[in-house]
Amino acid sequence: MTRNRTLSALLGIAVALLAGVVSPVAAQQGPLRITITDGVIEPLPFAVPGFVPENGAAGEYAANITRVVAADLAGTGLFREIPREAHISTVSNFDAPVAFADWQAINAQALIVGAVGVSGDQIVVKFRLFDVFSGQQMGEGLQFAGTPGTWRRMAHKVADAVYSRITGEGPYFDSRVVYVAESGPKNQRVKRLAVMDYDGANVSYLTDGASIVLAPRFSPTGNQILFTGYESGFPRIYLMDLNSMGVQALAQTEGNMTFSPRFAPDGRTVVFSLERGGNTDIYALDIGSGSVRQLTNSPSIETAPSFSPDGSQIVFESDRSGTQQIYVMPASGGEGQRISNGPGRYGTPVWSPQGDYIAFTKQNAGRFHIGVMRTDGSEERLLTASFLDEGPTWAPNGRVIMFTRESAGAGGQAALFSVDISGRNLRQIPTDGPASDPAWSPLLP
Questions:
Q1: Could you list the mean pLDDT of each consecutive 10-residue stretch along the chain, which spans 445 residues?
Q2: Phi/psi of residue 29, each to 5°?
Q3: How many domains does the chain have?
Q4: Are residues 364 and 223 part of one domain?
Q5: Same-domain pairing of 406 and 315
Q6: Cβ atoms within 10 A of the Cβ of 120, count?
Q7: How far apart are CA 181 and CA 69, in angstroms?
Q8: Are residues 290 and 423 in the same domain?
Q9: CATH number assigned to the domain comprising residue 257
Q10: Kind of pairing, strands 269-276 and 279-286?
């Protein structure tokens, strides 16, 4: 690559490598978009000199925010940070002119310049993004303000803005994940609901482990969580309010198991599975009125429902054909149409927030996979393979999937992993101990 190529031109090449085919004219004339599908790209080199502390109280915050921004971007696999020791220039004044030649000399193609100030109980973070080879600023500078305790969120917001400007994709760093934190021996696990930042930081526990909890799910606004609990000794679905921390049982039906709940996009309806007389079907509950209606009626197991983003359809798993397969039906209910057609068993389908893909768990030939397919079942692509991978959940931008991976053997443990929808950049999410059943929140307000 010659040095006079602009960042947009370089990313146009990345688009071609990533998507497989791209029109050079379209890449030059239209807005930049990186489509994460197939292929491997050379990560784009970026530099993020230490954010400038604008007063004495800001020094530690500035250093920490710089590291989180860099880690967010590098963690996508689309970007590569140029190490600090390779920098020729330093940035000591946020408003000083950029010495582009010094950054060009080390092949930095994007430059992030930031500053942090602290005044009383407020911290202010500001940044600018530059295309090094064109010598131009990309978009307007932005500023975020909050309490010192929210510094990580402000770092994620900076990284989100950079990521979106360069890739054209929606942001996802400023989000949270609810999951089941596990402890104790494998045959007697204590399971607690926990919530953390998308990267494993800022963990807090929502339940005390006195009873088993499974399959938590965020509401569309992120302020409520559905889950399956065994507090009564029987699986039932519960709703937790994250503001009050109050918990209520939903769809209480004496002697019948309820499980696998998930919100509708409007946040007012919950779909779930109910077992009655040895048969399991999918039902919908109106949270406000408490009214319940049956959506499927088949002498088989129907479970794991998930709404399309527009609320018009539901994808679910059923063994009506003799093996676990994936079906799509109208949100009002009905027979449904099978969309999975490959060998093996399919389960835990989840509709992408973008509406373009359905993620799923697949079991075939003794291996488990996380995969994606188009909403009509076409273009099936397996992203992972292991002893046990299951339970995918989508990032808010619909381009990264988190899931549970359990290792083999008597000492095997569950852990959280993420992968992008091309199958690239498989990464383990750090947690304090074994973890399972992740569910991604929407982007935080």
A1: 36 33 27 44 92 96 98 96 96 95 96 97 97 93 96 98 95 98 86 97 95 96 97 92 96 84 97 92 95 94 97 97 96 95 97 98 97 98 97 97 93 93 94 96 96
A2: -85, -30
A3: 2
A4: yes
A5: yes
A6: 8
A7: 26
A8: yes
A9: 2.120.10.30
A10: antiparallel
What is the C-alpha to C-alpha distance for residues 75 and 170, in angstroms, rounded to an integer?
Answer: 16
Distances (CA, A) of 149 to 58, 121, 144, 161, 209: 13, 9, 13, 21, 27
CATH assignment at residue 50: 3.40.50.10070
Are 126 and 195 members of one domain? Answer: no
CB 11 within 8 A of CB 166: yes
Contact between 196 and 438 (Cβ < 8 Å): no
Statement to judge: residues 157 and 222 lie in one domain? no
The pTM of the full predicted model, rounded to 2 decimals, is: 0.90
Do 315 and 392 have their domain in common?
A: yes
Question: Edge to edge, what strands does the sheet with 213-218 contain?
Answer: 213-218, 224-229, 236-241, 247-249
Look at residue 29 and tell me if it is in a domain.
no
What does R_g of the chain's alpha carbons equal in angstroms? Answer: 24
Which residues span the domain enclosing 104? 44-167
Nearest alpha-carbon partner for 439 in 393, 372, 403: 393
